[in-house]
Amino acid sequence: MDLSELLQNPSQDDGKANEKPSPLQSLKLDLDFYSESIKEISTEMVAEGYTLFPIFVAHQHEVSLGEVILDRSELGTNWSVNASSLEEFVDRGVIEEAKKARFEKNFKKANEYMCLFVIVPEGANFVFYPFK
Fold it and tell me: Which of 15, 75, 108, 111 lies at a C-alpha separation of 20 to 30 Å from 99?
């Protein structure tokens, strides 16, 4: 899934012309700001043999998946980012073992895209976002 697909607001045919903007708009700004740091960490994770499939968890609340690498309260941003991996996602049951090969096949190059697991109150989804 592309970030722009998540950013689109549903049509406002129901008369709610002044709906709040999607929190994902602020995510795009933060990802552009974080891009260099995330790329560096992604590269290190692969180079050090930790994983071939780094996953970054973007969230605005406390989550117990991965390790915090960019804390929104420390950086004055809207989103925090944790570093994780496909292996942790499988171990923790977020990705079923049976779907691991499919995930690997669809994974985009870790030196060109950050793989994000974006958590919002409505749910969570994987997004690939290009490094700047």
Answer: 111
Nearest residue to 86 via CA among 60, 65, 58 = 65
pLDDT digit string, tens, across residues 17-52: 456 667 778 999 999 999 999 999 999 999 999 999
**CA nearest neighbour of 6 among 117, 97, 85:** 117
Nearest Cα neighbor of 86 from 60, 108, 69, 71 is 108
Burial 38-52 (b: 16+ CB within 10 A, else e): bbebbeebbeeeebe
Segment holding 118, helix H or strand E = strand 113-120
* 45 token code pair: 């994770």
86-113 pLDDT, tens digit per residue, is 999 999 999 999 999 999 999 999 999 9
Ordered strands of the 67-70 beta sheet: 67-70, 80-85, 54-59, 113-120, 123-130
Whether residue 52 contacts residue 46, with contact meaning beta carbons closer than 8 Å, is answered with yes
The conformation of residue 103, written as its DSSP 8-state character, comes to: H
CA dihedral 20, 21, 24, 27 (to 10 degrees): -110
